Amino acid sequence: MLQVQRLVQRPRSFELLCGLNPSEFAVLAEHLEPLWIRAHRTSLLREGRIRRIGAGRQFKLDVPHRLLLTQMCLRHYLPMHLLGVLFDMDAANVCRNIQALTPFLEQALPAPLRPRTLDSRKVTPDDAAPRRRLRTLDDVLEAFPEIADIIIDGTEQPRVQPKRKKDDTPGKKAVGRPKDQKQYFSVKKGTHTLKTQVAVTPDGLVVHLSAPAGGRTHDMKELKQSRLLGQLPRGSQVWGNRGYTGLDNLCPEHEVITPQMRPRGGTLSEEQRELNHHISKVGITVENVVCKIKKFRICREFYRNELRHHGQFWGCVAGLVNLRTLGRAPQFA
User: Is the pTM of this model over 0.70?
Assistant: First the structure.
């Protein structure tokens, strides 16, 4: 079984294994443990529980080892059976440990604002007013008042082809194409994908992640449904690529900066090409951040988990990237 005490003696290998150096891992585990203990205590004191506190199955892994297990899953996206071999556990138990710790890991990290859905009709009070200090863009702007520019871009991750749900009628098989198969097919990638919109600052701090959308969704449509523009301070600059051409008509209260499109049958002037070059030098920041996010294989490889966990995994990874970018311990409520 992997032991944290032995792995920290090899700092470089430890960082390649879980994405954090030993000192960052120790600080994160130290602040994560009270969150886990408080939530577990609340679960034991819930109404209707018959057993006394202390009864029932005991956890095999403590918080640092459970964090190491989750970090390895995010970093390398190993199968549950292989993680079970490394930690001497059953695959189902590995899955339960990761799913139980992931929400608290996202709370402990400086994770960006992450709405649960792109459908404005399904907004819940928790989505409109997140409880964490650095989960909302307003809190990020309050903590970092120098932020005035936002750079946005979309990225895609391959996913399994949607399957048609089985009919409840006994003996009847599911036939035909599912209704949502087209919306997940990306012509650009040539496969079914999940698209996520990433908003960063010029310093590389991730401040917003959209809910996952189908690969067929246009960048402008995803931005409009992500409810990001309504939370930006008035007069802020929004940088985008050519996919966001016409964004100035959508948000006239912000300064929109996008590259100039070459006119049909014409060419760009020397000044326009120079301007596009400077815009690209700023926009490359979001590409570098996406590259850091996709170093975690759970955000890059073929997504094989349930769709409802996709945003939470991305939120944890973005929080880890922010933690390395800030170069300091995470802040807590």
Answer: yes
